[in-house]
Model the fold of this input.
Amino acid sequence: MAFTFMDPRARSPGLRRICLTLLLTLASPASSLRALEAAETALVREAQSHLQKFETNLNLALQSAGPGQEAVPPAKARLAAVRLQGALDAMAQVKARLDRLPGQDPAVEPLLRQFNTLTAAAQGLQARLTGGATPTAAPSASPVTPISNAPGNRPAAASAGASATPRLDYRQQEELKNARFYLREVEGKVAALEQLVGQVNPVSDVTTLDFRLLQRGMNTVAEARQRAGLVGPRLATLPATADGVAEAGAELKTLLTRLDTADQSLQPLHAQLAALVDPKSHPKLAADTARIRELAAMFSDPLLFQSHRPHAAARVRELTSAQAEHTRVLAAYAALLRQTTAESTALTAASAHFVDRVGLFTAEMNAQRAALPGSIDADFQKIDRMVQEAVSNQKPAFFTDGIPFEIGLLEEKIDLLDALEPARTAANRNRMKAVQGQVQKQQAALREAIIAANELPRDEFQGGERAELVKLATDAWRKLEPGATVITVRIPSSAWKRDTRWRNQTGDWYKIDRSFVQAQVIVRHSDTLAVIRPVDLAKNHLEGDRITAAPMDALKDELMPHRFLLLKKVR
Done:
């Protein structure tokens, strides 16, 4: 009778009826079993157990193959074949026991019918997997030959088996029991591995798999082999012909074959992912992660737009390159970021911090872009009013502190706007040049009064390096003016100001980590005047805190009146 298979989760009515008959038979009083000999009763129970394994493995194989009668795709066929082999092995165990039982017995007949139905189903699936006609099963798993219904038809081995089969003593029975216990453990682990194979094999991009999943799979392989290693030595101590020993050995062999198949499927995937998560595969990862963290730190203070515009402008100019670097790093480690490792977690955290800091910095940057043009225009007007008032009201002190200070702030704003919107730069630079010319022209009439009003710069720096800084500033100016008479050195700032950032130049990143302070070197200019010569001091923290000094002036620069002091005020 031909048998058409449906989805394994919904067996055919015929198969359900057979299973129901078997259940009713098993649930009925044991009178039918009492008609059998004791050895045959044991065979029936063993056949029932193996028949259940046969059905379970066959249903799993059918589920892997999918519904229909067409050929099975290779990705599904591999797992289906592994599960079908488990069914065929169980089929052989059932047949070996049915061959020793009377086929017409009421306890045997339902087993025989179910066995023949499942055998036909297994052969049909095997045909689908091989892509050919329904094959004849291997000798060890061939369908059962119908048994004669003639009364008393029992194989000779059935009646003589009890005396021919060695009996196990208590210790041997315990060894067999322990062997079977470990076999069940191996079977459970192999089934889990086969399920994992079915889960990962259809995936085209291995890097989308979780390495931890494959690692657990390989751990399960090792555990299964360790448990399997506990079976063989126990079986070796038992008589090979004793009841259950040969079957346990055959089952061990089958499980090891299935284990090898699963291991061979998982090993290449595990090896690829193990290489992916190995820090040695990413020699630049630590440096790239550190750079993303430090780029985030560059943009961590939006208040720079008010507190230190030159530093803010420098960061604005690096923002596009920093964002491109962040994108590059994430793309370079995209596969690793799909995994959960200490390294990927660190990079993910650094990336999130970068996005957060840059977001806040960009918001303030956009606010400055909108506000600066108006602020710059207002500053130009303020300086113009201060110049007019200084001249009209004879206030030379305006040219000493107020106007130079405002011009300095205005230059910082213009430079910041240049970083934000370079298109505005030319007009602002020209306007600034005109203002400076006007200031220079207007203060000429008050030159003597301005000089007379000038005071010594503040001297606030009290750090332990003061003596070294004074010497460096003095020596730096004397290189420009060897015969200069340095009267004193003043340092208006109370401490160094540090600037740590990355800079991208021609595609390469390099780090800047320096602190700055300015010294005012007071040099004799004439018998009545001294002149202030600013010297910029820089401490390079990447070169062992080496300090360098650079004069702000050239020797022949024309100086504004606010740079001169009456010699009698210098002390």
